């Protein structure tokens, strides 16, 4: 049998940075149960602060995945984590016209996946979605630059545009609407959603794909409210 790459494969076992078909080895850390906080939100905060201290590039970047029912079709996109509170993880977006808005209306569950390459760490969150109030969303909305606040009003996210000029006209109309106003109300179709966790997994890369994985799941019988299990890689 030939050892050459089959010619019907456009990509075959990409080797990343080592110029071979061997996958990169993860060697930067390990994870033990004794290192974990009983609460996964606290543990995430610890890891996130470490990621910031180690200058991980935009550690707030996260993949938000949703699924439409009854078809079960899954969609995913990169967003920014903007808040972590005692209830869960918060991201902001358009919840009127976007694909994720449609998904969440039919299926109020979502997942988040963080990947911090510099630390060879991954965090996965699965849980129910709840919409933030307009008052809560306004607090974050007010921190955005004016152009981003205008953009939230102007963009009918995921709807079809005939041209770039159509989008720019929408922005121009919004600018006229709020001309001279510094305090701009958050759109009723825009704001935050909180992913309230039912499962949180912390993953530390290890050599030979023998990674360290710990999964938190809800447990009302536990003092912390969570059960922690080590998972096979």
TrEMBL record:
Required cofactor(s): FMN
EC number: 1.4.3.5
Protein name listed in UniProt: pyridoxal 5'-phosphate synthase
Family according to the record: Belongs to the pyridoxamine 5'-phosphate oxidase family.
Pfam entry (one): PNPOx_N
Pyridoxine 5'-phosphate oxidase dimerisation C-terminal domain ranges (all copies): 190-233
Organism: Aureobasidium subglaciale (strain EXF-2481) (Aureobasidium pullulans var. subglaciale)
Catalyzed chemical reaction(s): pyridoxine 5'-phosphate + O2 = pyridoxal 5'-phosphate + H2O2; pyridoxamine 5'-phosphate + O2 + H2O = pyridoxal 5'-phosphate + H2O2 + NH4(+)
């Amino acid at each position: 049998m030939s050892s050459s790459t089959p010619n019907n494969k456009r990509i075959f076992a990409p080797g990343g940075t080592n110029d071979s078909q061997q996958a990169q080895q993860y060697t930067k850390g390990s994870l033990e149960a004794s290192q974990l906080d009983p609460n996964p939100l606290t543990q995430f905060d610890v890891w996130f602060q470490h990621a910031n201290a180690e200058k991980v590039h935009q550690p707030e970047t996260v993949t938000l995945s949703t699924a439409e029912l009854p078809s079960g079709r899954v969609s995913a996109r990169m967003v920014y984590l903007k808040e972590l509170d005692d209830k869960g993880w918060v991201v902001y977006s358009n919840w009127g016209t976007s694909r994720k808005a449609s998904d969440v209306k039919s299926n109020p569950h979502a997942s988040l996946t963080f990947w911090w390459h510099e630390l060879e760490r991954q965090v996965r969150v699965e849980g129910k979605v709840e919409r933030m109030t307009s008052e809560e969303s306004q607090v974050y909305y007010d921190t955005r630059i004016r152009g981003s606040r205008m953009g939230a009003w102007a963009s009918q996210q995921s709807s079809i545009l005939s041209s770039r000029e159509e989008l720019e006209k929408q922005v121009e109309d919004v600018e006229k609407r709020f001309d001279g106003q510094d305090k701009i109300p958050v759109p009723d179709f825009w704001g935050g959603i909180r992913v309230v966790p039912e499962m949180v997994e912390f993953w530390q890369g290890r050599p030979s794909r023998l990674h360290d994985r710990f999964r938190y799941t809800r447990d009302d019988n536990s003092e912390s409210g969570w059960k922690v299990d080590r998972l096979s890689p």
